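R.M. (postdoc): so does anyone remember the format we settled on? I'll just put the structure tokens first.
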């Protein structure tokens, strides 16, 4: 078996291992599924009754934001699992086995991608219940979901890098929460970013989260001609900008995570 075949086979083995861990600990998956469901119901039936948008329902405006919030939350499973394995010494056991060094990170991020698929399917069902609909072509909708999953995969490498730098589950959870919540709420997920005051407006408009949300809205047809046209370049060209953000995150954090992993297992 050559190096590439070994890396793929070992990565699939680690993916299966992590998927079994989630199945045996459903609270991990429940946390990333139940919280977005709560937000969908809360924002739709409480805040949605007070927020009026020209030419569209608040549910259709909000659901792409919930999709992105779900994948950023799910990505934390990658980091949390890595810190747990590092703390328990499982990395040391892997180091003694004849396996590809890249298999641990690849398997972890791919299993996180499977979790994201489950979460997004759940959000679709909940969204249909509260009135969300796709108004674009099937191809555009498919591209929208693929773009969400690509960003989810890239963001998993970000959390893997942070986890390998911090190394303890408790610290990682605190840092991940402090970072992920502002990323989502300081964006156009729930309100129009152009209405944010002062320096918050450019921060939200140039955020990768806002770009991805805007791209999802365009690909799902959840936009209205009556809504103001965004001024910021990433929001005016949301689909290519979101794709570019995903590729940049992968280019930066994949080699960085692998370097930190090698350092972790060598100590």
């Amino acid at each position: 078996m050559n190096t590439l075949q070994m890396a793929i086979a070992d990565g699939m083995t680690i993916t299966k291992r992590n998927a079994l861990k989630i199945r045996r600990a459903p609270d991990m998956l429940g946390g990333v599924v139940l919280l977005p469901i709560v937000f969908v119901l809360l924002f739709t039936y409480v805040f949605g009754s007070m927020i009026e948008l020209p030419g569209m329902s608040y549910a259709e405006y909000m659901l792409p934001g919930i999709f992105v919030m779900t994948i950023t939350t799910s990505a934390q499973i990658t980091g949390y699992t890595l810190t747990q394995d590092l703390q328990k010494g499982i990395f040391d056991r892997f180091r003694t086995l004849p396996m590809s060094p890249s298999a641990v990170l690849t398997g972890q991020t791919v299993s996180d991608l499977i979790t994201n698929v489950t979460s997004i399917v759940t959000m679709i069902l909940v969204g249909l219940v509260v009135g969300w609909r796709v108004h674009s072509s099937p191809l555009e909708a498919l591209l929208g979901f693929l773009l969400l999953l690509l960003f989810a995969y890239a963001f998993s490498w970000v959390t893997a890098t942070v986890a390998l730098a911090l190394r303890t589950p408790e610290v990682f959870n605190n840092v991940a929460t402090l970072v992920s919540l502002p990323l989502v709420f300081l964006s156009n997920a729930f309100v129009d970013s152009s209405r944010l005051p002062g320096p918050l407006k450019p921060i939200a408009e140039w955020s990768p989260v806002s770009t991805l949300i805007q791209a999802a809205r365009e690909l799902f047809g959840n936009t209205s001609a009556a809504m103001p046209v965004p001024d910021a370049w990433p929001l005016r060209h949301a689909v290519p900008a979101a794709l570019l953000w995903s590729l940049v995150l992968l280019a930066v954090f994949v080699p960085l995570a692998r370097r930190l992993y090698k350092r972790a297992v060598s100590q």
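R.M.: ...and that's the designed sequence above, right after the tokens. Also worth knowing: The longest helix spans residues 138-166. The mean pLDDT is 83.
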